[in-house]
Specification:
By secondary structure, the protein is of the alpha+beta class.
Length: 298
C-alpha cells in the first residue's frame, strides 16, 4: 500500500489533534478523582499509637476479634481472621542485650488509599471520618488491593470456598454502637488515643518536644504515602520496629494518575512516529521501483 506525503501529513495531523483532545479531556494531575474517596474534612478521626506505652497485653487484639466476630485463636501475623495484632520485635539496645518491643499492627487507613483506587468494584471505600471500610458482599477476590497496599495489610482468606480479602475496617463502630474503635477502648495503658487527626498530630509533636530523649523525632503516618489516620510514636527507630521507611510522601494514587495522564501523548506520539517510518519506507520503495522501471525501459 503506497502512502503519499499528503496522506502521511493528514494522518500525523489527526494524531496530533487527538493527543490535544486527550490532554484537554484529562483532568489535571494535581487532583486525582475517585468516586469512592471523599475529601477528608479537617475533623477526620484518627488514632495515635504510642508504642512506648504499649505493654504487649494484647487487649486491643482480643477486643478486635470479639467486636468483629472472629475466631479466638493464637495468631502470629495479620490474616483474614486477625485484623489487629500485637507484633513483638527484638530490638538490640546494648551489645549482647536484646529488648522485646510490642507494636500494634492493623490497616493504616490512608488519607488517599491505594487499595480504594485499585478496587474495581468499590468494595473498599474511604469514609469521611477517616476509615477505609470494606464490604465483603461487593468483593470479588481479585486481590488488586493486596498488590496496591504499600503496607501489605489486606489478607486473602485461602481457607474459604469463596475466598475474599479482609482487613481492619473499624466495622465495630458501625451504626453508632461505639464512639471509638474497640481496640482503643480496650487499651489499659492509654497507648491508643482516638480523636481528630489535627489534634492527635499536635499531641504527638508536643510529646516529642517535651520528651526529646524518649521519642524518635518523627510521627509515622503524618506524611507517609500522603498521610494516614493511624499515627505512631516510637522510642526506637521505626525501621527496627518493622515499619517501611522507604515510602514517598506523595499518595500512591497520585503517582499512578500522573503517569496515566501521559498515556495519550505517548500513544499518539508513537502513532505519529510509526506513520513517519511507514511513509519513509514506502517512499524509498517507490523510488527504487521507479528507478528499476527506468533502467528496464532503457
Amino acid at each position: 500500500m503506497k502512502l503519499s506525503r499528503r496522506d502521511f501529513l493528514k494522518l500525523f495531523g489527526a494524531s496530533a489533534a487527538l493527543a490535544g483532545v486527550g490532554a484537554t479531556i484529562a483532568p489535571p494531575p494535581l487532583a486525582p478523582k475517585n468516586r469512592s474517596v471523599p475529601v477528608s474534612p479537617r475533623d477526620a478521626r484518627a488514632t495515635l499509637i504510642d508504642t512506648t506505652k504499649c505493654i504487649g497485653c494484647k487487649s486491643c487484639q482480643n477486643a478486635c476479634k470479639q467486636a468483629n466476630g472472629l475466631p479466638d485463636d493464637h495468631p502470629v501475623a495479620l490474616s483474614a481472621t486477625t485484623l489487629t495484632i500485637v507484633d513483638f520485635r527484638n530490638i538490640a539496645t546494648k551489645p549482647n542485650e536484646v529488648e522485646i518491643k510490642p507494636v500494634k499492627r492493623q490497616c493504616m487507613h490512608c488519607e488517599n488509599p491505594a487499595c480504594v483506587s485499585a478496587c474495581p468494584v468499590g468494595a473498599l471505600v474511604k469514609q469521611e471520618n477517616g476509615c477505609v471500610t470494606y464490604d465483603e458482599n461487593l468483593c470479588i477476590g481479585c486481590r488488586y488491593c493486596m498488590i496496591a497496599c504499600p503496607f501489605g495489610i489486606p489478607k486473602y482468606n485461602w481457607d474459604s470456598a469463596n475466598p475474599k480479602i479482609n482487613k481492619c475496617a473499624q466495622n465495630c463502630m458501625a451504626g453508632g454502637k461505639r464512639d471509638k474503635p474497640a481496640c482503643v477502648s480496650a487499651c489499659p495503658q492509654q497507648a491508643l488515643i482516638y480523636g481528630t487527626r489535627e489534634e492527635l498530630l499536635a499531641l504527638a509533636h508536643a510529646r516529642i518536644r517535651e520528651n526529646p530523649g524518649k521519642y524518635v523525632n518523627h510521627v509515622y503516618g503524618e506524611k507517609e504515602v500522603g498521610g494516614t489516620t493511624m499515627l505512631y510514636l516510637a522510642g526506637t527507630s521505626f525501621e527496627a520496629l518493622g515499619f517501611r521507611v522507604d515510602l514517598p510522601e506523595i499518595a500512591l494514587p497520585q503517582l499512578t494518575w500522573e503517569a496515566q495522564t501521559k498515556v495519550p501523548f505517548a500513544f499518539f506520539g508513537m502513532m505519529g512516529l510509526l506513520s513517519g517510518i511507514a511513509w519513509w519506507t514506502h517512499r524509498n520503495e517507490s523510488l527504487m521501483k521507479d528507478e528499476g522501471q527506468k533502467t528496464k525501459d532503457e
